[in-house]
Specification:
single chain; 453 residues; alpha/beta; Rossmann fold; 4-stranded parallel beta sheet; two-stranded antiparallel ribbon; flat
């Protein structure tokens, strides 16, 4: 759902490009015969295309952890995507060469200006035009965590108070922000002008949950969320410390219908073929460099756990020495791993070593986007130590994934926990649009060298 700020940003970008092209044509044109209808149609098509590209690249995300370099890389990518689109439009415009050049100049100037502004706006301190007022039901450690996440991740919200209710838990929030527990939630919502209630209690058996009052608030138009739904919406992850099996069972999402499976498979095949054609020269050069530095083999194949726990072999360009695991004991890859070769360090940083996995996508063992496949040795370990770890195997593993663009490279059990929270979000909410977002954000991760080891 769009916030007011996001909607205003989209409207501003749309108006900036549309009006920019119009002004450019009228100003630079100097009386050249230009059909006003063509100007309007051209402007609308190009503007809608650029707004869609900006949305795919995450420029309208209210919450992000991108660096300025990441945003600039996305802006450059957006220009490279938009130029072929604009060129196709130019070809079909029934105008003279002079007018065609005029359209090109005005269009490219407007796109460059909009993207430059979008990069600056992404890193400008946000001031909320409309503040969302949130009441947290609970006063213990879980309520304190929810409040901290709100303050950190979204400055457009304001926590107006904590309602301790009759739940027996130690108070871990500022006492001055506690509201009178004798007041009903319905009265508090009206008095404090509450827009949303987050239920944040760690243990519900020590008291009475005011279900009737929460229902009345919900029916009056106030959004009521539990902790799992709050973290899912706010952070794009499903937090294990707030997760209950019942929420997974009875909640929405986790759709694995025939249509979604078919669309995802068709998309995987087309995208993998296109990427293999584009990157085939780079793959040949990479193979030659590996051969010159460390000889054969050029690739290494390793058994991984895939859909429904089925084992399959994943193939990558070899980036480590041939004796990397000479003792036969699997080890996590670490930062500045001394087992990597010189070529290996470069191709790992740029994720070139992952390209042969596109053949696994064509074979159907992997998808382009999904949870990263892990070795059976680590899966056995992590399944015992981390609740719900096996849920990530309900979809095909991916060459890239939501966890890969949201969290750095994992090298420990703690990292696996953090990445699982993003994987659970993907498994629950995966759509073609989310896949496209992940692919575009992967470009930013690769260009910025983020998280590679």
């Amino acid at each position: 759902m769009f916030s007011v700020d996001t909607l205003l940003e989209v409207i501003f970008d749309f108006g900036f490009v549309f009006v920019g092209i119009l002004i450019g044509v009228l100003w630079i044109g100097n009386g050249l015969p230009v059909d006003p209808y063509l100007v309007v149609v051209f402007s609308l098509i190009l503007t809608l295309t650029m707004v869609a590209i900006s949305a795919w690249l995450g420029f309208y995300h209210r919450i992000h952890d991108r660096t300025v370099d990441d945003s600039r890389a996305r802006a450059v990518l957006a220009l490279h995507i938009s130029i072929p689109v604009a060129y196709v439009i130019f070809l079909f415009l029934p105008v003279t060469e002079a007018n065609r050049t005029l359209f090109e100049l005005s269009g490219m100037s407007a796109l460059f200006g909009m993207l430059s502004n979008r990069v600056m706006a992404s890193h400008r301190r946000r001031r909320a035009l409309v503040t969302q007022r949130i009441l947290i039901f609970g006063a213990g450690s879980e309520a304190a965590k929810v409040a901290a996440s709100l303050r950190k991740e979204d400055p457009t919200v304001r926590v107006v108070g904590f309602h301790p209710g009759s739940i027996l838990e130690d108070v871990a929030v500022p006492e001055e922000m506690l509201v009178d527990p004798e007041l009903s939630l319905v009265d508090l919502v009206d008095t404090l002008k509450v827009d949303e209630i987050v239920v944040a209690v760690g243990e519900r058996r020590g008291g009475r949950m005011p279900l009737r009052e929460l229902l009345d608030c919900r029916l009056s138009g106030v959004l009521v969320l539990d902790m799992s739904s709050h973290y899912e919406r706010m952070l794009g992850q499903i937090r294990l410390d707030a997760l209950r099996a019942g929420w997974l069972i009875f909640g929405g999402g986790f759709r694995q219908g025939v249509v979604r499976t078919f669309v995802k498979r068709v998309f995987d095949i087309i995208a993998a073929l296109v990427l293999l054609i584009i990157f085939s020269p780079l793959m040949v050069v990479t193979a030659l460099l590996i051969l010159l530095e460390d000889g054969f083999p050029l690739f290494y194949s390793q058994e991984r756990v895939g859909l429904n726990g089925r084992l399959f072999n994943v193939t990558k360009f070899r980036s480590m020495r041939r004796d990397a695991e000479s003792d036969g004991t699997p080890r996590w890859a670490t930062k500045n791993d001394d087992r990597t070769t010189r070529v290996g360090r470069i191709i790992r940083k740029l994720r070139i070593d992952e390209l042969p996995q596109l053949f696994s996508v064509l074979m159907g063992d992997m998808s382009l986007v999904g949870p990263r496949p892990e070795r059976a040795y680590f899966v056995d370990q992590l399944t015992k130590e981390i609740p719900f770890y096996a849920v990530r195997h309900s979809v095909k593993p991916g060459v890239t994934g939501w966890a890969q663009v949201r969290y750095p490279y994992g090298s420990s059990v703690d990292d696996a926990v953090q990445k699982l929270q993003y994987d659970l979000f993907y498994v629950k909410n995966h759509t073609l649009m989310l896949d496209l977002v992940v692919l575009f954000e992967t470009v930013g991760v690769v260009v910025g060298g983020k998280g590679a080891q």
